[in-house]
Amino acid sequence: MEEYEGFIDDVATRRVDRRDLRKMPQVIKRVDERIGGMENTLQSSIQDIQDTQSMLHQNQLTFSENLASHVDMVLLHWDPVVS
User: Fold this and answer.
1) Cα–Cα distance between 60 and 54 in angstroms, integer?
2) Percent of the chain clearing pLDDT 70 (strictly above)
3) First to last CA, the chain
4) Is the CB of residue 16 less than 8 Å from the CB of residue 7?
5) pTM for this structure?
6) Is-contact 21 11, C-beta < 8 A?
7) What mean pLDDT value characterizes the chain?
8) Using one digit for the tens of pLDDT, what is the confidence trace for 9-18?
9) DSSP-assigned letters across all residues of 11-37
10) Which pLDDT value is given to residue 73?
11) Non-local CB neighbours of 6 within 8 Å, separated by 6+ positions
12) Are 74 and 83 in contact (CB under 8 A)?
């Protein structure tokens, strides 16, 4: 209760401006909206990162398959006599 008494005293003695207090709900609403926007941006970024990681993984698998295929082809056609 003591924290409220100090606040009430500050309002009564005008150390806290009542006009500023009236603006607080609007300020809080804007802060909530900005935080919501940041959360949406963060979620979208996380999804983009996950999609990129998945594509990178698939590219690595394809590269490995292609490399193995090319090595097999070179070994198949390699003539040790010519070398």
Assistant:
1) 10
2) 95
3) 93
4) yes
5) 0.58
6) yes
7) 91
8) 888 898 889 9
9) HHTTSS-HHHHHHHHHHHHHHHHHHHH
10) 87
11) none
12) no
SS3 string, 31-46, reads: HHHHHHHHHHHHHHHH
Tens-digit pLDDT profile for residues 31-59: 999 999 999 999 999 999 999 999 999 99
What backbone phi and psi angles, to 5 degrees, belong to 79?
A: -110, 105
Tokens of 55: 């594509």
Here the contacts of 8-11 (C-beta below 8 Å, separation 24 or greater) are none
38: which 2 tokens? 């940041």
Given the structure tokens 């609007």, which residue do they identify? 26
